[in-house]
Inverse folding.
């Protein structure tokens, strides 16, 4: 076997061998390495983004090599009041429309403008079916908002009960319920009757409207000069005094009965002002009237008896009675506390509400990681609280929450775009993997980081607790690790080299793993055509294409060109320099054949009809006839 120096002596005209350049690893005996040429900068285009009236940060500018594609990013934190983000356009108004995540291949510097779509908020009509009562106007409600309780309708002979969501009037409608579609509410009515009071010479007593089955409120006794009120009577009761606890089943009249007042006496009448009834007292003139038991009134506390309707003069029960007298009850309304249990949300202040009043809906509380749903009557969160409901006691209402979603945005730092994700609070993130960056030295994806400084990695056990942007980290490939094509990386050149027919800047060579080499033993060529082959890292691909174009299939070049690991294409037969580098790194492959391997370098730069270079497993090389059967070891550049 002859070494390279001897071969140059034998074939002095083979100038190409003298300029073979090798990487910084061990060089063939007798040769001097020639640094690879610095490739010219490839053509690239700038792709930038414009908020187009929105606010927030636009995605970063990207440099894309000619012929390469990118994926358009999501909007990130861009917002525009009254508009939804609809994608990216190539002009402020009009132009091509691209969705986030769409592929785009620039042919010139390009500015993408955010496309804003006016928000069309669904509106729903709430219709009020008054069921024979007076008309109630419809309401137009924004989806998710609440209808307002209208003024109660009226209907002769009936009292309005409430609004119901079903025509059978079984489901009471709660006006704090969000409206999510067209809605018809139905009025429920109760029949009413009129009870008239005939005071028979006494002062007038107002009539009462009573719901069927209800009872008449006993009025304050009327007064009549010279008489004592004895009671109310109904003709149909056959002389019995009327019992005010009797359910009303129709309209009727109650008549007063009087007795002549004894001489030298006075009648003291107690007007309880809506409280429980207090019977009149007959008092001798000059005597005193005893204080009755305090009346009661729901929602109020009794204050005292006053001698005037204006309730400014407290009556002195030790004072002598000098004539007929009416005393008036004064009441103080009871106030109740409405407490808001926000169930882990922000604090909502209590409200103090008088009896018969209503609580005011407070501003919605907030809670990190959750969306407020509504207020509920029960701690089990089953029944909505109706803020139009009258408060008649202390009450606690409870906030209901639904798990919120946070947006995780991915900044690929020049890699392919990644669509943002929306995940519930406390979720684990499945981190998306990125393909290699193209035509850069630090091209291997090294994980997602929490800061743009790439200081803190996002770990598999980290949970999503808020909106966050993750940043991709990239690193160079290490020799001996698996490359993007499934091969073993055996050569790196930080300054880069031109590959694939001077169409792509590459920085690494990878070779098929030894245990995957199933391409057999082949001869170099079959034909009789001459052509030139090239040397230099990265030129083996063009050599391979030229050989196939000249000689067709059934040769060493074609076997490598059609090789596949299932990861990526672009495999080729290495030239002599690339093959020698591979032979020096044979330990990366576990074992190696002891025979010879074809390169894509023809002797003297001429190929098919002559001899071509082979490399031995012992890292020596020689020329052999192109019809000789030898091994091949496919490689690819990236």
């Amino acid at each position: 076997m002859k070494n390279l120096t001897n071969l140059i002596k034998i074939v002095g005209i083979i100038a190409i061998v003298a300029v073979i350049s090798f990487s910084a690893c061990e060089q063939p005996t007798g040769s001097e390495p020639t640094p690879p040429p610095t490739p010219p900068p490839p053509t690239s285009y700038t792709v930038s983004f414009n908020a187009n009236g929105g606010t927030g940060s636009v995605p970063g500018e990207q440099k894309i090599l000619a012929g390469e594609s990118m994926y358009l990013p999501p909007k990130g934190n861009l917002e525009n009041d009254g508009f939804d983000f609809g994608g990216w356009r190539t002009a402020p108004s009009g132009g091509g429309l691209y969705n986030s995540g769409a592929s785009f291949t620039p042919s010139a510097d390009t500015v993408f403008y955010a496309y804003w779509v006016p928000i069309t908020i669904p509106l729903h009509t709430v219709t009020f079916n008054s069921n024979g009562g007076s008309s109630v106007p419809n309401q137009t409600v924004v989806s998710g908002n609440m209808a307002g309780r209208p003024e109660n309708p009226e209907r002769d002979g009936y009292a309005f009960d409430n609004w119901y969501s079903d025509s059978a009037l079984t489901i009471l409608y709660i006006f704090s319920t969000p409206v999510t579609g067209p809605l018809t509410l139905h009025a429920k009515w109760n029949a009413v009757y009129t009870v008239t009071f005939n005071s028979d010479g006494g002062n007038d007593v107002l009539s009462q409207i009573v719901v069927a089955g209800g009872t008449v409120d006993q009025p304050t006794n009327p007064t009549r000069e010279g008489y004592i009120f004895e009671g109310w009577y109904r003709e149909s009761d056959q002389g019995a005094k009327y019992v005010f606890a009797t359910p009303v089943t129709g309209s009727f009249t109650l008549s007063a009965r009087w007795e002549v007042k004894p001489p030298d006496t006075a009648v003291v009448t107690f007007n309880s002002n809506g409280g429980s009834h207090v019977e009149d007292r007959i008092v001798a003139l000059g005597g005193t009237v005893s204080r009755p038991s305090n009346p009661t009134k729901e929602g109020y506390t009794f204050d005292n008896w006053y001698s005037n309707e204006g309730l400014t003069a407290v009556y002195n029960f030790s004072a002598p009675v000098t004539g007929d007298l009416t005393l008036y009850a004064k009441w103080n309304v009871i106030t109740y506390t409405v407490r808001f249990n926000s169930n882990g949300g922000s604090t909502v202040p209590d409200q103090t509400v008088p009896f018969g009043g209503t609580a005011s809906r407070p501003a919605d509380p907030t809670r990190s990681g959750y969306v407020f749903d509504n207020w509920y009557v029960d701690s089990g969160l089953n029944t909505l609280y109706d803020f139009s409901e009258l408060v008649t006691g202390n009450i606690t209402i409870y906030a209901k929450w639904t798990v919120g979603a946070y947006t995780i945005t991915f900044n690929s730092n020049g890699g392919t775009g990644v669509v943002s994700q929306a995940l519930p609070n406390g979720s684990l993130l499945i981190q998306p993997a990125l393909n290699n960056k193209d035509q850069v030295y630090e091209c291997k994806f090294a994980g997602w980081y929490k800061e743009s400084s790439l200081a803190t990695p996002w770990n598999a056990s980290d949970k999503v607790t808020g909106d966050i942007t993750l940043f991709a980290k990239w690193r160079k490939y290490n020799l001996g690790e698996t490359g993007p094509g499934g091969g073993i990386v055996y050569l790196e050149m930080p300054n880069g080299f031109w590959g694939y027919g001077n169409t792509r800047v590459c920085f690494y060579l990878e070779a098929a793993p030894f245990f995957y080499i199933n391409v057999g033993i082949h001869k170099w060529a079959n034909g009789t055509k001459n052509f030139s082959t090239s040397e230099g890292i990265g030129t083996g691909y063009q050599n391979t294409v030229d050989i196939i174009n000249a000689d067709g299939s059934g040769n060493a070049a074609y076997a490598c060109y059609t090789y596949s690991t299932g990861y990526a294409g672009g495999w080729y037969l290495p030239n002599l320099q690339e093959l020698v580098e591979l032979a020096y790194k044979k330990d990366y492959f576990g074992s190696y054949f002891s025979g010879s391997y074809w390169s894509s370098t023809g002797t003297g730069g001429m190929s098919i009809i002559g001899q071509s270079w082979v490399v031995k497993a012992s890292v020596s090389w020689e020329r052999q006839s192109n019809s000789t059967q030898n091994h091949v070891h496919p490689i690819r550049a990236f």
